[in-house]
Model the fold of this input.
Amino acid sequence: MNHKHFIDVRSSSLILAAVTSLLLVTAQARTWTSTDGSKTFEAELKSYDATTGKVTVTLPNGRLMSFFQDKLSEADITYLKENGSKIIGSSSRVKELPDVLPDPDGEEADMSKPVQVYILLGQSNMLGFGKPGALKTAAQGGKYPYLIDDSNEWTVRKDVRNVRVMCSGNSPAKDYINDWMTIQGNIGPEMGIGHSLGHVTDAPVLILKSCIGNRSLGWDLLPPGSEPYEHGGKTQPGYRGTPEDPKGNGKPVKGKWYAGCQYDGDIAAAKKVLSNLDKYYPGAKEYEVAGFFWWQGDKDMRNAAHYERYETNLIQLIKELRKEFDAPDAKFVSASLGQTKEGAKSGDGVILDAMKAVAKSNDPELKGKVGFVYTHPLSKGGSSSGHYRGNPETYMNVGEAMGKAMVELLHGK
Done:
């Protein structure tokens, strides 16, 4: 459990022995206690799965937090077992994804449900370079028909918000898009992702993109918990380390780039959006992070120290993202570089193999929660470094495939 949501216990009277009142549909906040009784926090129970022991609560700021019951006191576990079944869960239902998406119906989402947040991370191709002019021509020719209406105007989804923020390193982020899901300039995979998830989800959806170009997982985006390692007789920095001080002291290096600098910036930017939820999804009061999308690797493939470590770093990234956003069950979908064929032995091939391996992992934290999209058959030519020549069909095809992979994970397939 993320202890930043706890307050210190000042008196034993704050530790609840048991709660005798029944939990009604309109649940109220209560005090929860940690396993050792040293910390408490206030939250409203939203759902409890007695089979897995998963607990989801709403914090006073409207944020949803999920964890497992072994983080709680015996009294809290007793409370859950006696009353958890009485809660009417607020988790969104996920419909089947049709082969061809229909036009959005223009209806707003059910705002009684928490916003389902999907965070998009990576580098320049996740950022998006698909040209809108060529995309409209493709749509008018019958491809991606849900993107244009009968008047040949771009459709608008009123149940999906499209938000893009960007920063360089851990500098302040700027808002670039904050609107309903529709075409506004160049596109990335968010269009295929957003329309797919918007169609199948009965709750509001927020597509939140936080990334910038020319960043590597092995350096700029290195996640917390990554330790220094040796490669080619040279020590590679761990998280918040530098070439001069590979270990670092766990703190950001002021005035200097460090391992994980872009990770810190991208995550801070995403959290800032979520801390001001109503600004980015008008009328929303609570949310839960349901999944992550990752399209990246162009920079790592040029550095053996990075691509040979890609699988380790990707696993660490997934686990840390779930911790960052209090989302232990959040799904994760990665996509390979479009020019890379399966079986390739070059750096990009190693990265493709790493993504596939993580998606097939038997690690309990990963199994059934990680998907992978092989994008070579979906690419319309060009390479990741050349942004696929700006062909929007590549970005749409990859986005649709990533959205489909996420839906399958949500269905437990």
